[in-house]
Amino acid sequence: MSEETVTKETDAYYTLSGDVNSDMVHRVFEAVAEMTERGIDTAHVLIQSNGGYVSDGLCLYNFLSNSPIKFVTYNGGAVASIAVILYLSGTERYASETARFMVHKSHATASPGARPDALNIIVEGLRADDARTESILRKHVTLTPEQWAIHQYSDLHLTARDAEVAGVINSIRDFAPPKGFHLHNI
């Protein structure tokens, strides 16, 4: 059996787009179950997402990081907010030259007329979410002190070149499934 045949049988190509939410979690769970049944060793996943719910992003990061399948993640356009944490689950990570990343602290809107105890619960939840996401960022990414300062109070935008310097990506490379491969949409 040739090496090309082995690669075709054990590699697969996927797209994953939309909001990071419980629907995406369900779709990814189903897709990974199908991958394991097919004997996929390496899944190349193009991610396009402006973010969503922190808990769902953390769930996907933990699930994919501990899967027996090697995930190679790609950014072909925009990966932002909690989707960056999902993206970091890839053991190899690539982005197109024109791709961008954006990370920021958690935020929430309180109900009008919310009482102080309710506001305190919201604040504590945001702090907990920020601690969890920042620990993952620090595990994978090396930002400058200036970038961390921006992240502290605002949206931090990174071009593909910035992301390469920071270690968000291994290198600039487009998602380009080989001819003849079936592209699966998660």
From TrEMBL:
<comment type="similarity">
    <text>Belongs to the peptidase S14 family.</text>
</comment>
<dbReference type="GO" id="GO:0008233">
    <property type="term" value="F:peptidase activity"/>
</dbReference>
<protein>
    <submittedName>
        <fullName>ATP-dependent Clp protease proteolytic subunit</fullName>
    </submittedName>
</protein>
<dbReference type="InterPro" id="IPR023562">
    <property type="entry name" value="ClpP/TepA"/>
</dbReference>
<dbReference type="InterPro" id="IPR029045">
    <property type="entry name" value="ClpP/crotonase-like_dom_sf"/>
</dbReference>
<keyword id="KW-0645">Protease</keyword>
<dbReference type="InterPro" id="IPR001907">
    <property type="entry name" value="ClpP"/>
</dbReference>
<dbReference type="Pfam" id="PF00574">
    <property type="entry name" value="CLP_protease"/>
</dbReference>
<dbReference type="GO" id="GO:0006508">
    <property type="term" value="P:proteolysis"/>
</dbReference>
<keyword id="KW-0378">Hydrolase</keyword>
